Structure formats: C-alpha cells, structure tokens
Amino acid sequence: MLSYTTIIVSYIIYTYSFDVIDAATPLVLNEIKRQPFRRPFGVGGTPTTNAYHIADYGTADAGTSLGLMSKMVDAVRERSVKEDAKKYGNNKREVVLHYEDQLT
C-alpha cells in the first residue's frame, strides 16, 4: 500500500511536469520556426523523401508530452505548407516521432 507521502510526491511531480512542458513549449516551437529544413535528397527529391524527426526519451506512456508533440507536428506541417509548397510544389513533409521509454 502506498503511503500518503508517496501519493503527494507523485502528484506534485506529475503536476509540475506539465508546468515544465508548458513553460518550454514556446521555446520549442520557436526553434522549429528557426531551424532550417534539410533539403530533399537526390534528383527530383521531395519533402516526403526527407522527414523531420522528433525524439522524446523517457516518455513512459507519453501522456505528459503528447500535447507538446502534437503542437510540434502541427508547427512542422504549417511551416512545410508555406515553404515546401513554394519550393517543391509539395507540402507533405513526413514527420517521424521517436518515442522511447528506455535510454538504451
């Protein structure tokens, strides 16, 4: 049986983890805006041949970071519509999320 202290500490950690992610969200989304997209590889390459990768380590069930991941994917797709469509006539850049609970 869990002690009262364990339950309180777990609740605090859980609650503050969302606060940390909320505080970091504007920074992360700003970096997506600033970071250059890599050019597609090969002759006739398109944005779909050069995916944008996002990694999240130590995620457990990803419940805490899922909202941020969704915002990141939306930001990449929004930017892709603006930039890739102009350059390549294609705005379907693939976004790959790497979720890993174990750092091995």
Straight-line distance between termini? 31 Å
Task: Specify the number of helices.
Answer: 2
Mean pLDDT: 75
Number of domains: 1
Instruction: Estimate the global geometry from the Cα principal axes.
Output: elongated
User: Helix content range of the residues, please?
Assistant: 40-55%
Strand content: 5-15%
Poorly predicted ranges = none
**Secondary-structure element order, N to C:** HEHE
| Strand element count | 2
Major β-sheet profile: 2 strands, parallel
Structural class: mainly alpha
**Spatial order of the strands forming the largest sheet:** 1-2
What radius of gyration results from the CA coordinates?
A: 18 Å
What does this structure look like?
By secondary structure, this protein is mostly helical. It has one domain (4-100). 52% of the residues lie in helices and 12% in strands. The chain has two helices and two strands. The protein has helices at 4-34, 66-88; strands at residues 52-57, 95-100. A two-stranded parallel sheet has the order 1-2. Helix 2 (66-88) links the parallel strand 1 (52-57) and strand 2. Helix 1 packs parallel to helix 2. The protein is elongated and about 45 Å long. The model has no long low-confidence stretch (mean pLDDT 75).
